[in-house]
Structures are given as C-alpha cells and as structure tokens.
C-alpha cells in the first residue's frame, strides 16, 4: 500500500478507528466502564462476520442471505462441547472450522448452480433449515438456547472474560482485514472480481469461475464461523436466534452501509450500525422507527457506502500539472530524385 493510498480518507479514517479500538480496553478500565469492552467486542465480532460476507458479496457479487447459518454453527461449535464439559479451545476451533467449512461447501455447491434472486432464496432456505434444526434439539436447549459453561481455553488464554475475547477478536479482525486487502489485488481475488463482472469471459480464458466462487464461499463461511465462535464466548451463550434470517440481513446492511467490495467497509458499517442502534436505544424504546430511515438516508447519501462518502467529503487535493513532452512527429521520407531538394518539413532519404 503506497503512501498516497494511506492518506486517502477512506483508508486513513479506518486506520485511525483501528488505533482507537486498540485503546478501548485501557480507556474503559481507566473510567470504570467495563461495559464498553463487551460492546466494542461485539462490534469487532460483527465486523469480522461482515468482512467474511464481503468476500462473496463485494468481491464475488454473490448476495448471500444465509451467512447467519455459519455464524450459528460457530456459536454451537463452542456450546455443544461445553455441554459435555469440554473447554479445549483448539477442539472448539477445529470443530468450528470443519463444521462451518463443510456446511459452506455443501450449500455452496448447490446454491451456485443458481444466480440472482434464486441464489438469494436458496441461501436463505439453508439458513432457515439450520435455524429449525437447532430449535429442534430439545436436549440442548432448543429454542431457549444453550449456556456456555466452559469457554474456549487456548493454553493460558481463556476466553471466559470480555477482555480476553476483545483481544482475540481484535487480532482476528486485523488478520482478516490485512488478508482482504492482499486478496483484493491477488490473482485469486482479481479472478473472483472478474467473475462478478462477466463469468463467461473468465471461463473463456481458462479460469473456472464457479470453482473460484465456491472456494470463496467456503472460506467466507469458515471466517464467519470463527466470528460465531467468538460471539458464543463473549455472550457465554448460544441461541438459534443467531441463525435467524434477520441476522443475515443485518450483515448485508453492514456491508452495503460501509461500502461493498471495500477493505474497510465492513468495519465502518458494523461500527455505525451497532453504534447508532445503541445510541437510539438510550433515547426511545421505539428506536427502530428512527433507525430504519436513518440507514436508508445514509445509503442514499453515499451510493458507494461510507468508504465512498469519505472520499467524496474529503476529495484529494489537486496536484500541480506536470509538463508533458510530446515526441516530434516523424517526417515522411522523400522519395524524389536524388538531385531534387526535399519539400519543406520533409526529410530526404540519405
């Protein structure tokens, strides 16, 4: 990333936000407000999930309405072993990646046979199937959810406190954001973005567009599963409501609000979405009546999301024009007799 790109508002502002998020635990502890650690940890976790969705929605052009399925699978990858008094974090992580990856692979193989509104509906259907599956598990809480009595332990690190979850989530967010920035200009990412524009042309040059989309969908599901695992440790609870279609809709709104296909858009979208929700709840119990129109107005104001709005609000300063040197026009060769002088402006053949 060049210096000019770092100075762009759409890049500089999110970097400053990340620096501010790194200081949240210190500030919250100093002012005696531990609630803010848990609140911003939730924002970071949803930013991770939105970044996972941005991989298929922003880079691949696949509007998935079923990413809540992977978020819920990640949450129950912690809750179910905890029910059997298993608190090994590495086992939780392995189960989370395996289950969410397998679910994403299987559902992606079927969903990618369709496109457009059919793809949206079939991903929504898979998420609802997962929702009713966990609701039917009466031995594991059913609709009431399942408490997490044994949080994930990674050696000396125990994700049983909001501060530990905050630190782990922040590191994961940094890694995911860095990876998304590298992927954007990597051959795989460029092929995926090309498939979004015209899959037939990508196939014509020998790159299997559907296979690239399937890999992206599978990886996206696994990253979203990790977010679900962190969310279960933060709440010490897993609920089928995590798999509800409304959660998938919220993730889509976060991506669109922040900026589809941008690296920092999911972070901006999650911060504004959840932050605005928390602020409005403090003023009125009918906060949804105000919240909805505000989201619509922000989306209309910046069609490229908040990241694009930052570039429009703080345009790049125009630099002084550089002199352009044009090469002299080639003179035509003179094809006359050797004794005749060449016409003006033309050169004679030596």
Folded structure, characterized:
This protein has 350 residues and is mainly α. It has one domain (34-322): ABC transporter involved in vitamin B12 uptake, BtuC (Orthogonal Bundle). It has helices at residues 3-6, 9-30, 35-59, 68-83, 89-111, 117-135, 162-185, 187-197, 199-204, 209-235, 245-258, 265-281, 287-301, 305-313, and strands at 146-147, 153-154, 157-158, 237-238, 333-334, 347-348. β2 (153-154) and β3 (157-158) form a beta hairpin. The longest helix has 27 residues, at 209-235. The two termini are 52 Å apart.
Low-confidence stretches: 333-339, 345-350
Largest sheet: 2 strands, antiparallel
> Given the C-alpha coordinates, what overall shape results?
globular
Instruction: Could you tell me the CATH topology label.
Output: ABC transporter involved in vitamin B12 uptake, BtuC
Structure annotation, total helices = 14
Number of individual domains: 1
Helix content: 55-70%
CATH top level class name: Mainly Alpha
CATH architecture descriptor text: Orthogonal Bundle
CA gyration radius, whole angstroms: 26 Å
Biggest sheet: strand arrangement = 1-4
Beta-strand percent range: under 5%
Overall average residue pLDDT: 87
Terminal Cα separation, in Å?
52 Å
The total beta strand count reads: 6
């Amino acid at each position: 990333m060049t210096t000019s790109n770092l100075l762009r508002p759409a890049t500089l502002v999110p970097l400053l936000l990340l620096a501010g998020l790194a200081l949240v635990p210190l500030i919250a502890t100093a002012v005696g407000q531990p609630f803010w650690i848990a609140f911003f940890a939730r924002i970071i976790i949803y930013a991770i999930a939105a970044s996972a969705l941005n991989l298929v929605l922003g880079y691949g052009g696949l509007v998935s309405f079923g990413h809540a399925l992977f978020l819920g699978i990640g949450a129950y990858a912690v809750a179910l072993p905890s029910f059997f008094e298993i608190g090994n974090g590495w086992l939780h992580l392995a189960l989370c990646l395996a289950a969410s990856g397998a679910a994403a692979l299987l559902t992606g193989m079927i969903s990618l046979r369709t496109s457009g509104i059919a793809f949206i509906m079939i991903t929504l259907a898979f998420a609802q199937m997962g929702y009713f599956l966990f609701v039917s598990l009466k031995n594991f809480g059913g609709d009431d959810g399942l408490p997490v009595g044994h949080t994930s332990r990674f050696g000396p690190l125990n994700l049983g406190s909001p501060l530990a979850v905050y630190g782990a989530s922040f590191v994961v967010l940094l890694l995911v954001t860095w990876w998304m920035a590298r992927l954007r200009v990597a051959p795989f990412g460029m092929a995926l973005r090309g498939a979004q524009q015209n899959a037939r042309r990508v196939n014509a040059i020998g790159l299997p567009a559907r296979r690239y989309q399937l890999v992206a969908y599978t990886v996206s599901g696994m990253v979203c599963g990790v977010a679900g695992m962190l969310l279960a440790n933060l709440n010490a609870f897993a609920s089928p409501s995590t798999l509800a279609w409304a959660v998938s809709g919220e993730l889509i709104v976060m991506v669109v609000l922040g900026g589809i296909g941008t690296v920092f858009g999911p972070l901006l979208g999650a911060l504004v979405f959840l932050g605005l929700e928390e602020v409005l709840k403090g003023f009125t119990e009918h906060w949804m009546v105000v919240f909805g129109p505000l989201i619509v107005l922000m989306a209309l104001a910046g069609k490229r999301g908040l990241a694009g709005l930052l570039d429009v609000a703080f345009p790049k300063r125009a630099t002084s024009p550089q002199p352009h040197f044009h090469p002299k026009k080639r003179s035509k060769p003179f094809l006359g007799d050797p004794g005749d002088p060449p016409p003006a402006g033309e050169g004679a053949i030596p």
